[in-house]
Amino acid sequence: MTLEAIKYKVGQLQILDQLLLPAESKYIPIASVKDGWDAIYKMQVRGAPAIAIVGCLSLVVEIYDKQYDTKHALQSEVVQHLQYLVTSRPTAVNLKLAADEVKTLAENLLANETVNVEGMKHQIIKSIEQMLEKDIQDNRAIGENGANALLKGVDRPLKLLTHCNTGSLATAGYGTALGVIRSVNVRNLLEHVYCTETRPYNQGARLTAYELVHDKLPATLITDSMVAALLNSTKVDAIIVGADRVAANGDTANKIGTYQLAVVAKHHDVPFYVAAPFTSIDVAIQDGSRIKIEERPEQELTHIGGQRIAAPGIGCWNPAFDVTPAELITGIITERGVLKPSELAEKVRPK
Ligand SMILES: CSC[C@H]1O[C@H](OP(=O)(O)O)[C@H](O)[C@@H]1O
């Protein structure tokens, strides 16, 4: 069992094909921006941070061995590839923000006369390679900040619930919401974790359960429809989920089903936390109504493992995400601390 979603070394990129998990653990090569785009769209790699890292690293493998006559030729190819990559999936903001940063770096290097074309390529590659380690550092900080917040004033082990997959498989490592659960466990203060199956792509049943079993954490899988009954019968200390895009006012887009978890949490007075790095916060969007929600193929709903489960001829609606309004969110756990949704805009000034 391996939890390493992304393998990268000196211009060589491989990803763990998450469509095959948990039955098969197979790495596939990503040798071009086209490969990167396809793997992201088909969700062979998924999870907002991992999408950004694999998208940008696919650009690295595309340009790594190429010679460019001019800095301008390099810059325009980089911009063209990034504009293509961000069309792979619309909701998660991490790839868009990373692409903007690389574009800005390329523009600055183009204008910098002391840097030649090879130096420019080298710096672009270096800045993207650093995304891997930075993401792991951020996730470990999110883990600690989240564990501190959840255990504040509590002197007994916790029962936690999470939705979708926000672990090592969704990031460069350790995870966001699942990272917080790991940090609580490291302190021997995790009594139990419940994870939802997360229909229709089943990230919870296939990927989060895979990580929880791998880590030997005390865990139980439930269907998405069992959450209210669980909160009604069991003392769950908090619900903790990830994020694909957090708007300036704190409204959060995350895996479909997150909003109803927040509504149930409110009804049962259970704290509801979002764990997300600043690379998932989009202050250019004022509130959640402006977030584009991806709609995915109906086959994801009508078939499981290639087997049709829905009656032929039925119509489907398959939004991949929904938006949880800020007022239902207790706190946003970031690498820089736990923020109330209302504090976000102040903390994240647009660059
Ligand atoms: C840290 S992962 C964040 C987020 O991404 C997932 O979406 P998907 O599996 O469709 O890429 C899910 O919404 C997670 O909460």
In terms of topology, how is this protein built?
Blueprint: E1 6-9, E2 12-16, E3 27-30, H1 33-41, H2 48-63, H3 71-85, H4 94-111, H5 117-151, E4 158-162, H6 177-186, E5 190-196, H7 203-214, E6 219-222, H8 227-233, E7 238-241, E8 245-247, E9 252-255, H9 258-267, E10 272-275, E11 281-282, H10 299-302, E12 303-304, E13 307-308, E14 321-324, E15 331-334, E16 337-339, H11 344-347
Parallel strand pairs: 4-5, 4-7, 5-6, 7-10, 8-11, 10-15
Antiparallel strand pairs: 1-2, 2-3, 8-9, 9-14, 12-13, 15-16
Helix pairs in contact: 1-2, 2-3, 2-4, 2-5, 3-4, 4-5, 5-6
The ligand CSC[C@H]1O[C@H](OP(=O)(O)O)[C@H](O)[C@@H]1O binds at residues 46-49, 164, 166, 170-171, 176, 203, 241-244, 254-255, 320.
- Name the CATH class of the largest domain: Alpha Beta
Helical content stands at 25-40%
**What's the helix-strand series?**
EEEHHHHHEHEHEHEEEHEEHEEEEEH
What's the tally of helices?
11
Strand neighbour order, sheet with most strands = 6-5-4-7-10-15-16
pLDDT average, as an integer? Answer: 97
Give the bound compounds: ligand LNRAV4D5
**Low-confidence runs (pLDDT<50, min 5 residues)?**
none
Number of folding domains? 2
Q: How large a portion of the residues is in β-strands, by DSSP E?
A: 15-25%
> What's the gyration radius in Å?
20 Å
Q: SS-based structural class?
A: alpha/beta
**CATH topology (fold) name of the largest domain:** Rossmann fold
Shape: globular
The counted number of beta strands is 16
**CATH superfamily annotation of the largest domain:** Translation initiation factor eif-2b, domain 2
Q: End-to-end distance, in Å?
A: 40 Å
Largest sheet entry: 7 strands, mixed
Using the 3D structure, state the CATH architecture of the largest domain: 3-Layer(aba) Sandwich
Function: Catalyzes the interconversion of methylthioribose-1-phosphate (MTR-1-P) into methylthioribulose-1-phosphate (MTRu-1-P).
Active site: 244 (proton donor)
GO cellular component, one term: cytoplasm
Catalytic activity: 5-(methylsulfanyl)-alpha-D-ribose 1-phosphate = 5-(methylsulfanyl)-D-ribulose 1-phosphate
